[in-house]
Amino acid sequence: MATSAAGPVAIIGSGLIGQSWAMLFASGGFKVKLYDIEQQKITNSLENIRKEIKLLEQSGSLKGALSAHQQLSLISGCRDIQEAVEGAMHIQECVPEDLKLKKEIFARLDGLVGDDVVLSSSTSCLLPSRLFTGLAHVQQCIVAHPVNPPYYVPLVELVPHPKTAPATVDRTHALMQKIGQAPIRVLKEIEGFALNRLQYAIISEAWRLVQCARVVAGMLSYCDRYGEGMKHVLRTFGPVPEFSGATAERVHQAMCAKVPADPEHLAARRQWRDECLRRLIKLKHQVPPQ
């Protein structure tokens, strides 16, 4: 049986990001409690994690020094949030990108934890000042924004609240490095952080090219989920596309011609992407350092 390096770690939300975080922390030897409100979601997530870790081991891409069996033994599910965070040294929130929901989660966590735990959000663009202001443990709060999928793309943006303690940033930075991630520090919060400001600038210009009938790429669901957030960030750049209407439909149809927008095809596309990333990781390990 594997033993925890330190911890445990609590993951709040068992979706794809939460599953990936759980795998990463287990790869570093940390006990992980994966929390969600529905038992079926937890059951499905644990099964997805089991299959993924086994596949990673078979392909020689499993992170960390522990075997697949040892890593899986460190991950458990939990429907009681108080039980999930009990004794945790790090809590990683991974619920949907909804400000009201995230604030409710952190308000509840604020009343459950002591002064020795880091409260971290996986938000992609909600400012820490909007998420954490007013919390008693605000000095322990930070955004650790991963790239999707976190297990295969190690970049993590660390974005502090204005009142986040420097020790919280240092501690989170060290933890991310320990589990094989590549953290960067955003010294002061800014709309979209660093990664999405760069990404949205590219998406925005690609959108203009589509409107001018020069290129075709993209999909509707991305616009539905992130369109408002992109517009909010891009307003700090200059004139902003609407990410809707005829152009959105053209982009969607072009994407559907390549990958139909149904769960089966999207899941297959995700598996294809992850397999490519696994091969890339394996190839990088074979390249001697310069």
UniProtKB/TrEMBL annotation:
Official protein name in the record: Lambda-crystallin homolog
Gene assigned in the entry: CRYL1
Pfam families: 3HCDH_N
Matches recorded under InterPro entries: 3-OHacyl-CoA_DH_NAD-bd, 6PGD_dom2, NAD(P)-bd_dom_sf
Organism: Pteropus vampyrus (Large flying fox)
GO MF annotation list: L-gulonate 3-dehydrogenase activity; NAD+ binding
Swiss-Prot/TrEMBL site (Important for catalytic activity) positions: H145
Superkingdom in the source lineage: Eukaryota
Gene Ontology BP term (one): fatty acid metabolic process
Domain (3-hydroxyacyl-CoA dehydrogenase NAD binding): residue spans on this chain: 9-189
Gene3D superfamilies: N-(1-d-carboxylethyl)-l-norvaline Dehydrogenase, domain 2, NAD(P)-binding Rossmann-like Domain
